[in-house]
Structures are given as structure tokens and as C-alpha cells.
Amino acid sequence: MLSSSSIRAIVDAYLDRHPGERGALAGLLDTLGRSGDVTSRTALPGHVTCSAVVVDRRRRVLHIRHRATDGLMLAPGGHVQPQDRTLLGAALREVREEAGIAPGALCLTPQLLDVPIDIDVHGIAASAAKGELAYEYYDFRYVFCLANEDAPAITLQDEEVSGARWVPLPEVTSPALRDKLLQAGVDGRPEPVNASAIIHDGHGRYLLHLRDANKPNIWEPGCWSLLGGGQEQQDETLLDTVRRELREEAELTVASLEPYAVEWVTGMDATSVPVQVFAGRWNGDPARLPLTKSVMLAWVHPEKFPYMTMLSSTRELLERHAAEHSPTAVVALVGAARTGSAGSPPGTVLNVVGVHLYLERDGQVLLGLRHPDSAFAGSTWHLLAGHCEAESATACLVREAYEEAGLVIDPADFELVHTVHMVNRPGAQPRINLVFRTRNWEGVPELKEPDKCVAWRWWSAKDLPEPIVPYARAAIEGITAGRNYSEMGWGQ
Questions:
Q1: Nearest Cα to 466, choosing from 375, 367, 374, 361?
Q2: How many CA atoms lie within 13 A of 291 on its CB side?
Q3: CB atoms within 10 A of CB 203
Q4: Cys-Cys link to 194, which of 7, 89, 275, 370 (CB 3.0-4.6 A)?
Q5: What pLDDT was estimated at residue 30?
Q6: How far apart are CA 456 and CA 453, in angstroms?
Q7: What is the pLDDT at residue 198?
Q8: pLDDT over 90 percentage in the chain
Q9: pLDDT-based confidence at 71, cuts 50/70/90?
Q10: pLDDT > 80? residue 135
């Protein structure tokens, strides 16, 4: 049985957002103050039910036709069952039973998380024929978005449901629910609201913590994992979240944390959870760090990952990072840069690799105006760009996008759309300029390095500003024309 105190905490969180509804929920608050099970369908003068409001990427809301409500089209929902550990879990069970959508196909929305968007009060008239007094349903409505782009197949529970339809958000049948969905800005797109950190020492070791296997309500008990947690109200960004979590969990401060990837995990309620993963370097003694939420902290070499109890997604993420930051590979690359050969055949000339970000919005491309004192292209418009260090091209671009403009991008979303192979003048070191496009990013361009860039602006791809870096113009024009390769300067 769900405790009245746990339900009261949910109601309090809801009323923090909707204080004007306290009067409408007075009956529920009074009932929660008494002994008894407010989720029981026999509880009077009212009891709790739960619904799942599922929103897809096209901002449509799943409605099903309930046989018990004279064919009304409503969100999947019903009474709380004894096996339900939470009200959120009850809503997930209902959408699975009535529409065949598994919890793993759903995500909590960043706008609402695990707080219901609406608590609907629906009165049921007394029935002399049934010998029933009047009572009320208090329906807790939770919002979910789809984890994947495509909507899952709907499998109806025939004995209770006779049809299903995806309804455009402005046509949602409940006026209160429709207004709150519009006010909350729910768009059906999953976004990370959790953050964790890959912490390494730069010499092949990774800092991992072992979760407690014996405490209740521990996510992935007994597993080795990354430090991190969920975003809280005081966190303005996910970077703030991961920094706060490191302080709270181990009094740990990592000087430089950069976005690395988005990891998908399964939450305690079995929904899919996107986690923004940051990476940073630290080289201290974990035995000196106090622990608040785990059993131990330890440095671990990648060769031990296959033998440790951890999520497969976490293992794959760490192995990928280790492959990209192998100490052997780093030493080889640094040596190559210094000698200019790295053991290559005679006559080999190293090419500088530059990465560039092509962000397009409504036919406009993002360009930055370089600082007048910049060593390269001062007072000239250019794509967001940087040079590859001992890292992959996409990892470099993830880093540069955040360092220069505060944009968070998943490297899996990058698409290589143009390459410019060029030489500035005869005898100069050749350059390979890779231009990547992404259609998904988090954040608004900001001036994070004002000594390098003094303005960000969206320009029409067909009417580019002057002056602009010539190879940036060539790349943009090539992308617009559908070409994926250009050469410059080789005929000089």
C-alpha cells in the first residue's frame, strides 16, 4: 500500500506549481490526513487514480476510448493496484496494459519530471440503485514523451478499450490538461535532466564508485558507475548539476569538465533516461575523499571493465573514451606532431586537421565574428571551429562548441557534410577542414571566449556577410549546392 505521506509529498510538490488549486484539492488533503488507503477504489468520500499523458515528437497526445466511460477519448489510466510502488508506476502500468506501450519506450519530460501536470477532480453522483454515495476521483496525470522518433505500435486491451488515436495537442479533450501542456511547453522531445562525469587521470585510469547494494531505493545497487545525479531546481545548467553532485557525493572538484556524450540508461521506474556525460581530468587519491552515497571510490584500468558489475551502456561509454584517450596513442600523436613524421615514409607531410560546426536554423547558418586582434582572420566572420588535438574529430567539435559558444551536442548527432583540402600559400602546411552538421543541440550561442569571438549571428546561407573566411564560404556554398568536397590553393 502506498503511504499517505508519500502521496501528500506529491500533492505538495504539485501545489508548489499550482497554489491556486489548493481549494479544489481540499477534500483530498483532508482524506490524506486520516488513516486508511486513499488509493483503494472503495475509499470514500474519494480516492486516487492515475493517468499517463503520452506526447510524441509531433506534439500529439495519445487518447484511448474507454468502454467504461461511454466511449470518451481519454488518456490511458485507471485505479491504483496493490503491486504499484508509486503513483508514477501506476500510470506506467496503465499505459502498458491499455495501449501496450512498455515503460522503456517512454521518458519523463524535462519540464515536469516526476511531478504530475494535473490533478483532476471528477465527481461521481450518488446512485440509489447501486446503493452508492457520491464520491470523487482524484486523477494524478503524469506526462511522458517517447524515447524514439517513431511511435510504438498500439496494442489495445479489448475488454476495457475500444480504440486509440494520437490527438494534436490543441485538441486534447480535457481543457485543464490541454492548457497546462501548452503552458509547460511540452514538445515531446526527450532531453537530459541527469548528468554524470567520466573522471580520468590522463594516464589510463578511471575514477568509479561502487553503489550500495543494501539500501532501499538505490539505482543500480551493487554496480560500479560514474558519479552524478539528477538536475535540481537551483541548477541553471547540467554542468552545474554534475559539479554539485561531485561536491555532494565526494567533496570532489574537477577543474575542467567538458560535454562528452549522452548515455541512455533505464531508470528505477523502468523508463528510458538520457544522461549528459561530461569528461574531466583529476589525479588525486580517492581514499581521501569522503563518501555519502556509495561504498567506495577507486581508480580502475580499462582492462578490468569486462569483469566488473556495471551497466553495459556505462562499460561501452568508458571503453570508447579509453580508446580515444589511450596513453600510447596520445604519446604517438604528440611525438608525430613534434617530429613532423611519426615514422612515416620519406616525403610525407602532415596535414593540420580543423573541425567546423555548420548549424542551420530556418535557412540561416550560425557564424561568429572573430576578434580584431585574432592571429587568424581578425574582424572576419567564420564558422565555429577548432583544431584537433589528441582526440577524435567529433570529440574535438563537442569540446569546441561548448568552450566557444556554450552549446552541448551529442557526437552521435554529427554528420560530415563537407571537406575542404587547402593550402594557404606554396610551401605552407596543408590543411584538411572537416565541416560537420547537427540538427540537435542544447543551449543558445553565447560569447564564452570574447578574446576570440565578439559576436554570434545567424546569417542567410544564400546571403553571407563580408568579410568571411574564404574556405568557410566555399564550404557553406558547397553544402547548399549538395557538394561534399572542395579544394583551394593547390593551383597557386
A1: 367
A2: 14
A3: 12
A4: 275
A5: 87
A6: 8
A7: 97
A8: 55
A9: low
A10: no
If DSSP states are collapsed to H, E and C, what string results for the chain?
CCCHHHHHHHHHHHHHHCHHHCCCCHHHHHHHCCCCCCCCCCCCCEEEEEEEEEECCCCEEEEEEEHHHCCCEECCEEECCCCCCCHHHHHHHHHHHHHCCCHHHEEECCCCCCCCCEEEEEEECCECCCCECCEEEEEEEEEEEECCCCCCCCCCCCCCEEEEEEEEHHHCCCHHHHHHHHHHCCCCCCCCCEEEEEEECCCCCEEEEEECCCCCCCCCCCCEECEEEECCCCCCCHHHHHHHHHHHHHCCCCCCEEEEEEEEEECCCCCEEEEEEEEEECCCCHHHCCCCCEEEEEEECHHHHHHCCCCHHHHHHHHHHHHHCCHHHHHHHHHHHHHCCCCCCCCCCCCEEEEEEECEECCEEEEEEECCCCCCCCCCEECEEEECCCCCHHHHHHHHHHHHHCCECCHHHCEEEEEEEECCCCCCCCEEEEEEECCCCECCCCCCCCCCEEEEEEEECCCCCCCECHHHHHHHHHHHHCCCEEEECCCC
Position 467, amino acid: P
How far, rounded to the nearest angstrom, does the alpha carbon of residue 331 sit from its chain's CA centroid? Answer: 34
Q: Is the pLDDT of residue 125 over 70?
A: no
Interatomic CA distance for residues 58 and 7, integer angstroms: 32
**What are the grid coordinates assigned to 331, written together?**
604519446
Tell which residue, 413, 408, 407, 417, has the closest CA to residue 355.
417
- The dihedrals phi and psi of 276, each to the nearest 5 degrees, come to -75, 120
Query: Are 137 and 43 contacting, i.e. CB atoms less than 8 angstroms apart?
Result: no
How many whole angstroms separate alpha carbon 31 and alpha carbon 356? 60
268-295 per-residue burial string, b: 16 or more CB within 10 A, e: under 16: ebebbbbbbbbbbbbeeebeeeeeeebe
Residues 230, 236, 242, 248: is their CA dihedral positive or negative?
negative
Please tell me the distance from the alpha carbon of residue 15 to that of residue 209, in angstroms, as a whole number: 37
- Given a cut of 80, whether residue 115 has pLDDT beyond it is yes
How far is it, in rounded angstroms, from Cα 128 to Cα 430?
Answer: 90
Q: Which residue type sits at 369?
A: L
User: What backbone phi and psi angles, to 5 degrees, belong to 243?
Assistant: -65, -45
Query: How far apart are the C-alpha atoms of 63 and 173, rounded to whole Å?
Result: 9
CB 11 within 8 A of CB 26: no
Q: Per-residue pLDDT for 459 more than 90?
A: yes
Residue 340 pLDDT greater than 70, yes or no: no
pLDDT in tens, 254-263: 988 999 999 9
**Residues in the chain, total:** 492
The cell for 135 is: 464520491
pLDDT digits (tens, 9 = 90+) for 180-213: 999 999 999 999 989 999 999 988 899 999 988 7
Computed over every residue of the chain, the mean pLDDT equals: 87
